[in-house]
Amino acid sequence: MTQFTTAQLWQVIQRVRSDGPRVHCLTNTVAQELTANVLLAAGAVPSMTIAPSEIAGFTASANAVLVNLGTLDETRRESMVLAAEQAKTAGKPWVLDPVFIHRSPPRANFARELLAYGPHVVRANRDEFQALGKAPAASPRSVYFESGAVDEIWQGDWHGRVANGSPLMTRMTAAGCAMTALVAACCAVEEDARCAVTAAAGWFAVAGELAGEGAGGPGSFKAALLDRLYDLKADHFAAKLRYTDTMTGEGT
Predict the structure, then answer these.
(1) Phi, psi of 207, deg, nearest 5
(2) What range does the record give for the signal peptide (predicted)?
């Protein structure tokens, strides 16, 4: 038996749609438009300012915070520390996406500094986790989410997998960044970060799989992905979702 039922995961999706959580996104310039549109399609409310003088107000009024290192300049560095510090103090969920840290040692060092503020979730690919110097399975507190052809989710002894998606996801820029924002939205409405991450991963991947079935290429896929995030139904989610999990020393 899996840790979370399809019905439990669907309830998280429904709460995002009904509650409209506010997610403040400190993200990269390439990802801003898609990130905002994914959150809006999901029923959440995005904000994007990076001005240090505004971070306190926007973080205070948000239900969750996203910190994405894809476009890292001095203004963003200052604002990211302020946002992470305030989110930690206020007990608000925040999600770290250490984009491209495997290509920049200074960026990797900064990502490690941000870990001290206790992100609820770290979402990265395999190269980024290796550069972070953290094995996903060794995280007792933060949920570590390794995205790929199969999404892998870890916390302590628990390991979940979501095996949906479409090859066209790799042909559209900022898909992973936008998915991380969806993770933040789900964390805003669900206290169990493992459940929130699994719901977000399933929502995005199932929507992507459905979008890919009718898309003619990356352009039409992008529009279809937003539509499927917006109109995904419970029966389609239950029929399509391929989710399993394990505990150390146990089967699924």
Answers:
(1) -60, -40
(2) none
Domain hosting residue 158, numbered range: 6-246
| Residue pointed to by tokens 């203004």 | 75
182 Cβ contact list (under 8 Å, min separation 6): 38, 39, 42, 44, 200, 203, 204, 229
Number of domains composing the chain: 1
For the segment 3-48, what is each residue's pLDDT rounded down to a tens digit?
A: 999 999 999 999 999 999 999 999 999 999 999 999 999 999 999 9
Closest alpha carbon to 118 in 98, 146, 89: 89
The four Cα atoms 184, 190, 191, 195 give a dihedral, to 10 degrees, of -90
Phi, psi of 63 (to 5 degrees): -95, -15
Instruction: Please give the model's pTM, rounded to 2 decimal places.
Output: 0.95
Task: Report yes or no on 1 lying in a domain.
Answer: no
- Answer yes or no: is 251 within a domain: no
List C-alpha distances in Å: 22 to 36, 41, 60, 222.
11, 13, 10, 23
Answer for the pair 62, 26: CB distance below 8 angstroms, yes or no. no
